[in-house]
């Protein structure tokens, strides 16, 4: 069996999850890690028993590198991904796929012409409650979906931003709680809602960290889909703990609720537990969920079998487009019809 050579660019907090996932794939090997900080590159290379580099462009002509994981700050995703795709590499990028929608479209265009595939890490789609919810929606077993809500109440300290030069800035993070923390929940809402937006009205504020960051720490939105499903969203980094994400989906014949990462069905006056979170540690923060490894394994399986990975550029951009609509609505204080921006 041919070994798939992998590289990780960016050796920050999320990189260890990628490295562990690669190590658990039988026919894959982490060949190289890259970080612009030579100390970080050397330490990560030692930790993973591989080569360490400081310039990702050295990967472009390497025939032993087949898949590259982009785990860098947001503003670096698009440029790196386009270069890597043009060089024939498969690219798996952390969220958001780009800093903004125009940059994401450049990535899409590069992927459409490339020999390699582009995948976007929206690992919450692989968490068991998300999988079960989508199965119920697609099967129609509870009738049509009527409405849904998603609530993210997390915390980010002043030090979280001051210790990292790229966070909290429009030019490098692209936004605040919407594009960094709550993007996974927004992606789930648009995925559950069918993806076709009718209109969006939202607002963003900086409730706690206005002396520290340029971007928002709190946001809410009312999202109407073309299939008449309505989604409500609230997200904040101004809480004092990281609470589990809450989801509720109301159907004609019952309601699904995700609470503390468990999924419940309320139907005919009775509540039934459908699934519980995994108890084994994922090696990351508890609220990240357990989907990272599943997504990475699935991406590698698609590459190995020559199949198109399903969370590609066209899927990855949808959450960014929704976020852009919320920002536009907040700026204008009016509901933004999606048709005006298509």
Structure description:
It comes from Paenibacillus tritici. This is Gfo/Idh/MocA family oxidoreductase. Pfam families: GFO_IDH_MocA, GFO_IDH_MocA_C3. Residues 6-120 form the Gfo/Idh/MocA-like oxidoreductase N-terminal domain. Residues 132-256 form the GFO/IDH/MocA-like oxidoreductase domain. With 342 residues, the chain is of the alpha/beta class. It has two domains: 4-122, Rossmann fold (3-Layer(aba) Sandwich); 124-276 and 310-341, Dihydrodipicolinate Reductase, domain 2 (2-Layer Sandwich). 32% of the residues lie in helices and 25% in strands. It contains nine helices and 15 strands. The chain has helices spanning 15-23, 38-48, 74-86, 101-113, 128-139, 158-162, 183-192, 291-305, 313-332, and strands spanning 4-9, 28-34, 51-53, 67-70, 90-93, 118-120, 145-153, 197-205, 218-225, 230-236, 246-251, 254-259, 262-267, 270-275, 336-337. The strands form two sheets. Strands 14-13-12-11-7-10-9-8-15 form a nine-stranded mixed beta sheet. Strand 1 (4-9), helix 1 (15-23) and strand 2 (28-34) form a beta-alpha-beta unit. Helix 4 (101-113) runs antiparallel to helix 9 (313-332) and helix 7 packs across helix 9. The radius of gyration is 20 Å and the shape is globular. The model has no long low-confidence stretch (mean pLDDT 94).
């Amino acid at each position: 069996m041919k070994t798939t050579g992998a590289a990780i660019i960016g050796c920050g907090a999320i990189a260890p999850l990628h490295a562990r996932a690669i190590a658990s794939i039988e026919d894959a090997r982490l060949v190289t890690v890259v970080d612009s900080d030579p100390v970080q590159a050397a330490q990560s290379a030692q930790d993973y028993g591989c080569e360490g580099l400081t310039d990702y462009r050295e990967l472009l002509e390497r025939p032993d590198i087949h898949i590259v994981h982009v785990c860098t700050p947001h503003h670096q995703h698009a440029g790196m991904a386009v270069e890597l795709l043009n060089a024939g590499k498969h690219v798996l990028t952390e969220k958001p796929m780009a800093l903004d929608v125009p940059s994401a479209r450049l990535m899409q265009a590069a992927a459409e012409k490339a020999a390699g595939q582009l995948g976007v890490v929206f690992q919450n789609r692989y968490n068991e409650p998300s999988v079960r919810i989508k199965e119920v929606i697609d099967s129609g077993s509870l009738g049509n979906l009527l409405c849904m809500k998603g609530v993210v109440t997390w915390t980010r300290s002043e030090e979280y931003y001051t210790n990292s030069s790229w966070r909290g800035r429009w030019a490098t993070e692209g936004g605040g709680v919407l594009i960094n923390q709550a993007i996974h929940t927004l992606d789930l809402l648009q995925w559950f809602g069918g993806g076709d937006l009718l209109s969006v009205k939202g607002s963003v504020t900086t409730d706690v960290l206005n002396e520290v960051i340029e971007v928002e720490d709190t946001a809410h939105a009312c999202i109407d889909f073309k299939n008449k499903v309505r989604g409500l969203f609230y997200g904040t980094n101004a809480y004092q703990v990281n609470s589990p994400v809450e989801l509720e989906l109301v159907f004609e014949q019952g309601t699904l609720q995700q609470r503390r990462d468990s999924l419940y069905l309320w139907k005919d006056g009775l509540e039934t537990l459908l699934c519980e979170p995994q108890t084994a540690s994922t090696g990351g923060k508890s609220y990240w969920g357990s989907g990272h490894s599943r997504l990475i394994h699935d991406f590698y399986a698609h590459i190995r079998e020559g199949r198109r990975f399903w969370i590609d550029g066209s899927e990855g951009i949808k959450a960014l487009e929704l976020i852009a609509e919320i920002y536009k609505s907040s700026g204008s204080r009016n509901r933004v019809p999606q048709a005006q921006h298509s």
